[in-house]
Design a protein that fits this description.
By secondary structure, this protein is α+β, with helices and mostly antiparallel strands. The protein has 3 helices and 11 strands; from the N terminus they run αβββββββββαββα. It has a 7-stranded antiparallel beta sheet with strand order 1-2-3-4-5-9-8, with helices on both faces. A hairpin with a 2-residue loop joins strand 8 and strand 9. The longest helix has 15 residues.
Protein backbone atom coordinates (compact mmCIF):
# COMPACT_ATOMS: atom_id res chain seq x y z
CA UNK A 1 0.00 0.00 0.00
CA UNK A 2 2.88 2.36 0.82
CA UNK A 3 4.28 1.98 -2.72
CA UNK A 4 0.85 2.63 -4.30
CA UNK A 5 0.57 5.85 -2.29
CA UNK A 6 4.04 6.82 -3.55
CA UNK A 7 2.68 6.57 -7.10
CA UNK A 8 -0.19 8.95 -6.36
CA UNK A 9 2.13 11.38 -4.62
CA UNK A 10 4.39 11.31 -7.66
CA UNK A 11 1.57 12.36 -10.03
CA UNK A 12 1.97 16.12 -9.64
CA UNK A 13 5.74 15.85 -10.04
CA UNK A 14 5.36 14.20 -13.42
CA UNK A 15 3.59 17.22 -14.84
CA UNK A 16 4.73 20.29 -12.90
CA UNK A 17 8.36 19.30 -12.65
CA UNK A 18 10.78 18.88 -9.86
CA UNK A 19 13.22 21.11 -8.12
CA UNK A 20 16.62 19.95 -7.07
CA UNK A 21 17.03 19.75 -3.34
CA UNK A 22 20.67 18.73 -3.25
CA UNK A 23 21.40 21.54 -0.79
CA UNK A 24 18.94 20.30 1.82
CA UNK A 25 19.93 18.28 4.86
CA UNK A 26 17.20 15.71 4.16
CA UNK A 27 18.69 12.88 2.13
CA UNK A 28 15.42 10.93 1.90
CA UNK A 29 14.47 12.40 -1.50
CA UNK A 30 16.52 13.80 -4.37
CA UNK A 31 14.77 14.98 -7.48
CA UNK A 32 15.64 16.98 -10.55
CA UNK A 33 14.60 17.86 -14.07
CA UNK A 34 17.25 16.30 -16.30
CA UNK A 35 15.88 17.55 -19.64
CA UNK A 36 13.14 19.89 -20.81
CA UNK A 37 12.02 21.81 -23.84
CA UNK A 38 9.09 23.98 -24.89
CA UNK A 39 7.86 24.14 -28.47
CA UNK A 40 4.63 24.36 -30.44
CA UNK A 41 2.56 25.12 -27.33
CA UNK A 42 3.80 22.10 -25.36
CA UNK A 43 6.32 21.62 -22.57
CA UNK A 44 8.19 18.34 -22.33
CA UNK A 45 10.37 17.28 -19.44
CA UNK A 46 12.20 14.31 -18.05
CA UNK A 47 12.56 14.01 -14.30
CA UNK A 48 14.73 11.80 -12.16
CA UNK A 49 13.91 11.11 -8.53
CA UNK A 50 15.43 8.96 -5.80
CA UNK A 51 13.55 8.35 -2.57
CA UNK A 52 14.91 6.33 0.32
CA UNK A 53 12.70 5.18 3.14
CA UNK A 54 13.58 2.64 5.84
CA UNK A 55 15.03 -0.34 3.97
CA UNK A 56 13.82 0.59 0.47
CA UNK A 57 14.99 2.87 -2.32
CA UNK A 58 12.80 4.08 -5.21
CA UNK A 59 14.39 5.46 -8.36
CA UNK A 60 12.14 6.91 -11.03
CA UNK A 61 12.66 8.32 -14.50
CA UNK A 62 9.61 10.06 -15.93
CA UNK A 63 8.73 11.73 -19.20
CA UNK A 64 5.82 14.20 -19.31
CA UNK A 65 4.33 16.33 -22.06
CA UNK A 66 1.86 19.05 -21.17
CA UNK A 67 -0.15 21.42 -23.36
CA UNK A 68 0.59 24.96 -22.20
CA UNK A 69 -2.87 26.43 -22.90
CA UNK A 70 -5.02 23.73 -21.25
CA UNK A 71 -2.55 22.04 -18.85
CA UNK A 72 -3.64 18.66 -20.24
CA UNK A 73 -0.78 16.24 -20.01
CA UNK A 74 0.46 12.70 -20.58
CA UNK A 75 3.33 10.92 -18.88
CA UNK A 76 5.26 7.68 -18.88
CA UNK A 77 7.56 6.64 -16.04
CA UNK A 78 9.62 3.70 -14.89
CA UNK A 79 10.08 3.14 -11.17
CA UNK A 80 12.76 0.86 -9.74
CA UNK A 81 12.23 -0.29 -6.16
CA UNK A 82 15.15 -1.86 -4.29
CA UNK A 83 14.54 -3.67 -1.00
CA UNK A 84 17.67 -5.36 0.27
CA UNK A 85 18.91 -7.24 -2.82
CA UNK A 86 15.49 -7.50 -4.46
CA UNK A 87 14.64 -5.22 -7.38
CA UNK A 88 11.14 -4.56 -8.72
CA UNK A 89 10.37 -2.43 -11.79
CA UNK A 90 7.02 -0.77 -12.49
CA UNK A 91 5.75 0.99 -15.57
CA UNK A 92 3.50 3.97 -15.08
CA UNK A 93 1.28 5.80 -17.60
CA UNK A 94 -0.61 8.90 -16.50
CA UNK A 95 -2.93 11.50 -18.00
CA UNK A 96 -3.90 14.86 -16.50
CA UNK A 97 -6.70 17.27 -17.24
CA UNK A 98 -8.19 20.21 -15.34
CA UNK A 99 -11.76 20.42 -16.70
CA UNK A 100 -13.48 17.18 -15.61
CA UNK A 101 -12.75 13.92 -13.80
CA UNK A 102 -11.94 10.73 -15.66
CA UNK A 103 -14.48 7.95 -15.28
CA UNK A 104 -13.51 4.40 -14.31
CA UNK A 105 -12.54 2.48 -17.43
CA UNK A 106 -11.93 5.65 -19.46
CA UNK A 107 -8.99 3.79 -20.96
CA UNK A 108 -8.90 0.02 -20.64
CA UNK A 109 -5.95 -0.91 -22.81
CA UNK A 110 -2.51 0.36 -23.71
CA UNK A 111 0.39 -0.32 -26.07
CA UNK A 112 4.00 0.58 -25.33
CA UNK A 113 5.87 0.30 -28.62
CA UNK A 114 9.66 0.29 -28.77
CA UNK A 115 9.86 0.51 -32.54
CA UNK A 116 10.79 -3.17 -32.87
CA UNK A 117 8.15 -4.72 -30.59
CA UNK A 118 5.75 -3.93 -27.78
CA UNK A 119 6.32 -4.00 -24.03
CA UNK A 120 3.61 -5.18 -21.64
CA UNK A 121 3.17 -4.40 -17.97
CA UNK A 122 2.24 -7.46 -15.89
CA UNK A 123 -0.99 -7.19 -13.89
CA UNK A 124 -1.59 -3.59 -15.01
CA UNK A 125 -4.14 -1.69 -12.95
CA UNK A 126 -5.88 1.50 -13.99
CA UNK A 127 -7.79 4.07 -12.00
CA UNK A 128 -8.89 7.70 -12.03
CA UNK A 129 -7.60 9.94 -9.23
CA UNK A 130 -8.61 13.47 -8.23
CA UNK A 131 -6.28 15.93 -6.53
CA UNK A 132 -6.05 19.63 -5.83
CA UNK A 133 -4.11 20.25 -9.04
CA UNK A 134 -6.34 18.30 -11.45
CA UNK A 135 -7.84 15.00 -12.48
CA UNK A 136 -5.57 12.07 -13.23
CA UNK A 137 -5.95 8.70 -14.87
CA UNK A 138 -3.18 6.20 -14.20
CA UNK A 139 -2.14 2.76 -15.38
CA UNK A 140 0.57 0.94 -13.49
CA UNK A 141 2.00 -2.56 -13.76
CA UNK A 142 5.11 -4.64 -13.22
CA UNK A 143 7.99 -4.71 -15.68
CA UNK A 144 10.46 -7.59 -15.82
CA UNK A 145 14.12 -7.52 -16.82
CA UNK A 146 13.28 -8.37 -20.45
CA UNK A 147 10.83 -5.46 -20.70
CA UNK A 148 13.37 -3.10 -19.10
CA UNK A 149 16.01 -4.17 -21.62
CA UNK A 150 13.52 -3.61 -24.46
CA UNK A 151 12.83 -0.07 -23.17
CA UNK A 152 16.54 0.70 -22.83
CA UNK A 153 17.31 -0.68 -26.32
CA UNK A 154 14.38 1.04 -28.05
CA UNK A 155 14.86 3.12 -31.19
CA UNK A 156 11.70 5.00 -30.32
CA UNK A 157 9.10 4.79 -27.62
CA UNK A 158 5.41 5.40 -28.28
CA UNK A 159 2.66 5.00 -25.68
CA UNK A 160 -0.93 4.53 -26.81
CA UNK A 161 -3.99 4.47 -24.56
CA UNK A 162 -7.26 3.07 -25.86
CA UNK A 163 -10.78 2.06 -24.98
CA UNK A 164 -12.29 -1.21 -26.23
CA UNK A 165 -15.72 0.29 -26.87
CA UNK A 166 -14.86 3.91 -27.82
CA UNK A 167 -12.17 4.36 -30.46
CA UNK A 168 -12.39 8.17 -30.16
CA UNK A 169 -10.53 7.92 -26.83
CA UNK A 170 -7.39 6.59 -28.50
CA UNK A 171 -4.50 8.78 -27.39
CA UNK A 172 -0.84 8.36 -28.39
CA UNK A 173 2.34 10.18 -27.56
CA UNK A 174 5.97 9.65 -28.53
CA UNK A 175 8.39 9.77 -25.64
CA UNK A 176 11.48 11.82 -26.44
CA UNK A 177 14.67 9.80 -26.99
CA UNK A 178 16.21 11.64 -24.02
CA UNK A 179 14.00 9.43 -21.82
CA UNK A 180 15.68 6.29 -23.17
CA UNK A 181 19.07 7.90 -22.49
CA UNK A 182 17.94 8.69 -18.93
CA UNK A 183 16.86 5.07 -18.42
CA UNK A 184 20.30 3.92 -19.52
CA UNK A 185 21.98 6.38 -17.19
CA UNK A 186 19.85 6.00 -14.03
CA UNK A 187 18.34 2.52 -14.18
Amino acid sequence: MKKFLFLFLMLPLLFIGCKSDDDSNDNSAKESVVWSQSKDGYTEKITYKVTTEDDSKDTSVAYAIQEDSTSKGLAFAVIKTEIDKNIIYKGYIAALRKDEPFEHGYWDKYIISTGQKTVSMKDALSSPHDSDDGYYFIMVGALFDAQMEALKNANELEVTLGNSSDSSRKTSFVVDYEFIKALLKYM
